[in-house]
Design goal:
The complex is a heterotrimer.
Chain A: H1 2-22, H2 28-56, E1 62-72, E2 75-83, H3 85-108, H4 115-134, H5 138-156, H6 163-194, H7 199-202, H8 209-226, H9 235-238, H10 244-253, H11 258-265, H12 267-272, H13 274-295, H14 301-322, H15 325-352, H16 359-362, H17 370-384, H18 390-404, H19 406-435, H20 450-465, H21 477-482, H22 496-522, H23 532-539, H24 544-590, H25 598-619
Antiparallel strand pairs in A: 1-2
Helix pairs in contact in A: 1-2, 1-4, 2-3, 2-4, 3-4, 3-10, 3-15, 3-20, 4-5, 5-6, 5-10, 6-8, 8-11, 8-13, 10-15, 11-14, 11-15, 13-14, 13-19, 14-15, 14-18, 14-19, 15-17, 15-18, 15-20, 17-19, 17-20, 18-19, 18-22, 19-22
Chain B: H1 5-23, H2 28-52, E1 61-69, E2 74-80, H3 82-105, H4 110-129, H5 133-142, H6 144-154, H7 159-188, H8 202-215, H9 225-231, H10 234-259, H11 261-266, H12 268-288, H13 292-313, H14 316-347, H15 363-376, H16 383-398, H17 400-425, H18 442-460, H19 463-466, H20 472-476
Helix pairs in contact in B: 1-2, 1-4, 2-3, 2-4, 3-4, 3-10, 3-14, 3-18, 4-5, 4-6, 5-7, 6-7, 7-8, 7-9, 8-10, 9-10, 9-13, 10-13, 10-14, 12-13, 12-17, 13-14, 13-16, 13-17, 14-15, 14-16, 14-18, 15-17, 15-18, 16-17, 16-18
Chain C: H1 6-26, H2 30-55, H3 59-87
The chains are: A mainly alpha, B mainly alpha, C mainly alpha.
């Protein structure tokens, strides 16, 4: 089973290296298939280790070290992979969904002149993401964490001739670098207290509560940046500048959900710093609400889905923060299915409409894309959480768990329920606008090559049946599978009637949202409410970008310019030059003593000797 | 010849070859080939040494000692500690790449040029292996002579000003060091760096530190840096920032800290603060610099600051991280300057306003610049990241705020390096970038790829250095407060 | 102790030195300047010999001999210079030989 994990990890890296080194010697198609095959091989490895682990029993995780990666003093960090229930689950999601999306890319990127680079980056991303989830210690987790950020940067900025794409890529990287930095700081605290970065030992060592809180806060900072939670979320909508399969893979299914994985992975630490864990839950609730609101007014099809992603990750954070890690992970899995589906379906639409993304101009395009319409509908219903689609099974237990968790849980549950209504509203606003009646038509017939349609089909099925594997409280194999690594906290174990109430309310509110969307956007019997001010606030996304620009970027750039003009220039560039010129001026004055007359020299000589004589006498 | 002679061979082979080149009227081609061959032979000798180095022993290896100036107890004493081995490796590999670059672009007056490059190689190796203070000083100054000519003759339009500034700055520092080491030698009656006792004189310590702080450079002593890095030929800038500046940091690691433990801990906060200032100040200026070389130059300042933080943290994590960071940054800045040189050859400029869009159709250039760039901004998993991580973990144990400032430096590094990458490679084509500007030629690839490959190997196995630094020698003499 | 006391010798020596110094300072002909230099040297020599005799130590006399040798070579060079100046038909006037003025 360990061999499977290693295969899973290094197959995509091999693919990326092969494509890079082969360069133009291989055709684009070959590069695309190398990448696809490498990711599917990784999926094979993941399946291998999953069944291996099942055979051993899920409580017998194994840790294998290839070589010591970093060693200094007493600190020793190996290149270690961990095979345990949590990591195998993530491996399956990442490589499975990843394989489908890379396959989809073959059709989507067909006419791009730099296809090889794209596929090398995709393989690199899958490798990085697998390193993140398989890494057997915190430092390796951070390495994967940084590398997914790097591949995300490369892929968002893939069309590097577009200034907007380059700017979005840089923004994503820098925001994530902030998260990396806070995580690194958390690790410094851990090293100082425990001199170790392994998952197993640090959490058992007793640290002061301040130190524990600091470590948890640092981890949370990294998680929030990667998972686009408020206040570190502004990069995600901009990241939609990348190709659509990239958005599906990185900015919906896998990378952005890594924050949830980290909380689940390091839960013993978060449980010792329960306040910080609840902050994570609150952060999730705030994000799901705000992102849901912003999604209501967006007009770019990908940005609507991006905000919905933020909002859904909010649910996962809420679940993980409350303490029901398994449900957070379960929602992560179903979300990977239906959100990847939505993005890929949106990709089909964009592909068919020659890169048009404005939903006002896409009105009516659904008429020529019948299969895509069904796929999109399935994805939307799963997203809203209508039974029997996947989202229903994974989202509602999170709300139920929140209901159970004290008074603050009830507040969070209420926010999550409002979010459920918003989800129904914005999702079906999008659906009814794009697939409602209108003039937009595709330029070319058909919905794309089989490489695009097959993944959409598979994901549609998964979005439908993927949630059936767990239906709390009746059957809970996912929770039981994860129990050895991430047991649910007692405070987040809802009673049966709480489960029932949460489900009924959530479905009812979701349906209400759909109904309102139907009336407003399909039947148009109800006018869209017009509140200019509120609308402007939402269109400006609550002014986060503007505020960060004014608070951080401008001061930093201004300080840098000030230092250059007022400090570096005059003090370090000019001063030495001026010093040289001053020396020359002094020399010009001293030169006058040199008269060229013998007698002056003699006089100086004599005077000098006389002075010396007097000095000697006096000193004596 | 025994294996112990290899250390001396590393010093004197290139210097001897330099004299041969100066003396014989060889053709341009023969001169260049000889120089490149000798610098490759240096790499070979070093690899042989590294293979034979016994990392399980902590002491000096491959050492040789002979009397030089008897009355003053000055000796010709050379040898290598584990960390010196890495410094020497950095030197010979980078110098080989830079010498070959000079051959590739065909510098005029080849005999003078290649002779000086070889002489510089020998002198720099000498700095890293000398085990006698006076010998160290001789090599330290010996590096200056070829650099003076290399910048002053083959440099850009502002080369004279840059040269004079560089030489005066470093000479001023070196004179303080000379005074300090004479004071040390007279007081203890020995100049030997192996048997010399520790001193508690703050003045002597400051004399050494001034020289090293100028060479590295640390914050208020970097006046020579922007001009020198902008006006030198690219391969000389590469040598300056990749290898020569590291001599200052080596001096801190080998002399200033272990020989003066009390003063070093007395002034610890001062030098940590200077390092932090250099880090933040350099990063901010790099973020606003209008040209490629400016960004690399100021980022070198920032990195020197970071390394100084590691050295003055005074613990194993800090020392090991600093050694790794020195080696990794040496390769990074050499590669970046050489790439800047190839860009300048194609476009005649390195101003961001005139560049852009070079990625399209030039995959090798784009891949190499991108790879080096992301390693340089310390993306997690890279060798620079491993170095920074250890340095800051060490600094955190000194006081938390050093680690916080350092972590802020990571974010700033991302900002300025991404700016450089985008300004050269991305967006619309710059006005000086013509369609027929070629991708990297095989000759250029042969120079830059080995450097980048070394960095990737170090990224895969940073413990190769951090676990084999032998800095325990330095630490044992340090009295931890 | 035979002869006058050392003070007399020193007096004469100082007088000679002073006369010579005055000559160097005020005369403009290089020949006379050289001559005055010789007088200064001889003043110094006299003092050396007087002290030598006073202290009963031969070192002073040795020094005086060395000074004479130096003086002789100095005159050679000086006279050579004078001849060279004359050959190039320059004025024999030290004030006009001021090419070293800064």
């Amino acid at each position: 089973m360990t061999a499977g994990a290693w295969l899973c990890l290094f197959a995509p890296l091999g693919g990326a290296l092969a494509i890079t080194l082969a360069g133009t010697r291989i055709s684009r198609t070959v590069a695309a298939w190398i990448s696809t095959v490498s990711v599917f091989v990784a999926f094979g490895g993941a399946v291998w280790s999953f069944f291996g682990l099942r055979a051993h029993g899920s409580e017998h995780g194994s840790l294998t070290t290839a070589w010591t990666w970093l060693e200094s003093g007493g600190l020793k960090v190996g290149l270690t992979v961990l095979v345990d229930p949590l990591s195998t689950m993530m491996m399956l999601i990442v490589s499975g969904v990843g394989g489908l999306i890379v396959l989809y890319s073959i059709g989507y990127m067909q006419d791009d002149p730099e296809e090889r680079r794209y596929f090398a980056y995709m393989s690199l991303f899958v490798f990085s993401m697998l390193l993140l989830v398989e890494g057997g210690n915190l430092l390796l987790l951070l390495v994967g964490w940084g590398l997914v950020g790097l591949s995300s940067y490369l892929l968002i900025g893939f069309w590097h001739e577009r200034p907007a794409a380059v700017a979005a890529a840089k923004k994503a990287f820098v925001m994530n670098a902030i998260g990396d930095a806070t995580m690194a700081l958390a690790f410094f605290v851990l090293i100082a207290h425990t001199n170790s970065l392994s998952f197993a030992t640090d959490f058992n060592v007793h640290m002061s509560s301040t130190a524990t809180n600091l470590v948890a806060l640092g981890l949370l900072g990294g998680a929030a940046a990667k998972s686009a939670q408020i206040p570190l979320h502004t990069w995600l909508p901009d990241a939609m500048e990348g190709p659509t399969p990239v958005s599906a893979l990185i900015h919906a299914a896998t990378m952005v959900t890594a924050g949830v994985y980290v909380i689940a992975r390091t839960h013993p630490l978060f449980e010792q710093a329960r306040t910080v864990e609840l902050i994570a839950a609150g952060m999730g609730a705030l994000t799901l609400l705000i992102a849901g609101l912003i999604a209501l007014v967006q007009v770019d099809i990908k940005r609507v889905i991006a905000y919905s992603t933020m909002s859904q990750i909010g649910y996962m954070f809420l679940g993980a923060g409350i303490g029901t890690y398994a449900n957070g992970e379960f929602h992560l899995m179903t979300h990977a299915f239906f959100k990847a589906l939505l993005f890929l379906a949106a990709g089909v639409i964009i592909h068919a409409a020659s890169d048009e993304q404005d939903i006002r101009k896409l009105r009516g395009i659904g008429a020529s894309l019948p299969w895509t319409k069904w796929a999109f509908l399935i994805g939307s219903l799963a997203l809203v959480g209508i039974p029997p689609f996947a989202g229903f099974f994974s989202k509602d237990p999170i709300i139920a768990a929140a209901l159970h968790a004290h008074w603050y849980g009830v507040i969070l549950a209420v926010v999550a329920l409002i979010g459920a209504f918003l989800t129904g509203l914005y999702t079906f606003r999008l659906y009814f606008i794009v697939f409602g009646p209108g003039e937009a038509r595709t330029d070319h017939p058909g919905e794309g090559p089989w490489t695009m349609l097959l993944p959409v089909g598979v994901l549609s099925v998964l979005a439908l049946v993927g949630g059936w594997i767990q239906f709390a409280p009746f059957w809970t194999p996912v929770t039981r599978w994860l129990a050895p690594v991430a047991p649910t906290l007692a405070v987040a174990e809802p009673t049966d009637w709480q489960d029932a109430v949460a489900s009924i309310l959530a479905v009812a509110l979701g349906l209400t949202g759909i109904a309102v969307a139907y009336l407003m956007y399909a039947r148009r019997t109800v006018a869209v409410p017009s509140r200019r001010k509120l609308q402007r606030v939402l269109e400006h996304k609550f002014y986060f970008d503007e505020a960060y620009d004014a608070l951080f970027f401008r001061p930093a750039a201004g300080l840098a310019r000030f230092l250059r003009d007022a400090f570096e220039g005059p003090w370090f560039i000019s001063t030495p030059t001026e010093l040289g010129e001053d020396t020359l001026t002094v020399a010009r004055g001293v030169r006058r003593i040199q008269t060229g007359l013998l007698r002056t020299y003699v006089l100086f000589l004599g005077t000098g000797m006389a002075v010396l004589a007097v000095v000697l006498l006096v000193v004596k | 010849m025994t294996v112990d002679d290899f250390t001396s061979l590393l010093i004197w082979l290139p210097i001897g070859a330099a004299i041969v080149i100066w003396a014989l009227p060889l053709s341009r081609y023969a001169t260049g080939s000889l120089a490149v061959l000798v610098s490759l032979a240096e790499v070979g000798i070093w690899i042989e040494q590294a293979a034979r180095f016994d990392f399980s022993r902590s002491g000096l290896q491959f050492s040789q000692k002979a009397t030089w100036i008897n009355d003053l107890h000055v000796s010709y004493h050379v040898g290598e500690f584990a960390f010196s081995l890495w410094f020497v490796g950095l030197t010979v590999i980078c110098m080989a790449a830079c010498t070959a670059y000079g051959f590739w672009v065909g510098r005029d007056r080849p005999r003078a040029y290649f002779g000086l490059m070889l002489f510089l190689t020998g002198a720099t190796v000498g700095v890293f292996v000398a085990q006698d203070l006076l010998l160290f000083y001789a090599f330290f100054e010996g590096m200056l002579i070829p650099l003076y000519v290399l910048v002053g003759v083959w440099g850009g339009p502002g080369r004279l000003g840059a040269t004079v500034k560089f030489v005066i700055y470093t000479m001023a520092g070196s004179l303080f060091m000379l005074a300090a080491l004479i004071a040390y030698g007279i007081h203890f009656g020995t100049f030997d760096m192996l048997s010399g006792p520790v001193s508690s004189s703050r003045w002597i310590f400051l004399g050494f530190m001034l020289a090293f702080a100028i060479k590295s450079p640390l914050f208020p002593f970097h006046g020579w840096l922007p001009d020198a890095y902008r006006q030198s030929p690219p391969e000389v800038s590469a040598v300056l920032s990749g290898v020569i500046a590291k001599a200052g940091l080596y001096g801190m690691l080998r002399i200033a800290i272990p020989f003066f433990p009390d003063p070093a801990s007395y002034y610890r906060t001062l030098f940590l603060a200077l390092g932090a200032l250099a880090l933040v100040y350099g990063s901010l200026l790099a973020f606003r610099a209008p040209d490629m070389r400016g960004v690399i130059a100021y980022s070198s300042l920032a990195q020197a600051g970071l390394i100084a933080i590691g050295l003055f943290s005074g613990n194993t994590l800090g020392f090991d991280g600093a050694v790794l960071q020195i080696v990794a940054h040496g390769f990074v800045s050499t590669a970046l300057f050489l790439i800047a040189g190839t860009v300048e050859r194609r476009t005649t400029t390195d101003q961001f306003a005139l560049l852009g869009g070079m990625a399209r159709g030039r995959p090798a250039l784009a891949t190499l610049l991108l790879t080096t760039g992301v390693i340089s901004l310390a993306v997690p998993g890279s060798s620079m990241f491993a170095g920074e991580f250890l340095i800051l973990a060490g600094a955190y144990q000194r006081a938390w705020w050093w680690a916080v400032i350092g972590a802020g430096g990571i974010v700033l590094a991302a900002m300025y390096m991404l700016r450089l990458i985008s300004a050269v490679l991305h967006e619309a084509r710059g006005s000086t970038v013509s369609d027929d500007a070629l991708d990297l030629r095989p000759g250029e690839l042969a120079l830059i790829v080995p450097l980048v490959a070394t960095l990737l190997v170090l990224s895969a196995w940073p413990a190769g250095i951090t676990h084999h630094t032998g800095t325990a020698v330095v630490e044992t003499s340090i009295v931890t407060p | 102790m035979l002869g006058p006391s050392i003070a007399w010798y020193l007096g004469i020596s100082a007088l000679l030195f002073g006369v010579g110094a005055l000559g160097v300072l005020v005369r403009r002909n290089p020949l006379i300047v050289l001559l005055s230099l010789e007088i200064m040297l001889n003043g110094a020599n006299l003092a050396l010999i007087a002290f030598s005799r006073h202290a009963g130590n031969g070192a002073g006399q040795i020094f005086a001999l060395a000074v004479m040798a130096v003086a002789a070579s100095e005159v050679c060079v000086g006279l050579g210079l004078v001849v060279a100046i004359h050959r190039r038909r320059l004025a024999l006037d030290v004030d006009r030989l001021s090419e070293l003025r800064g």
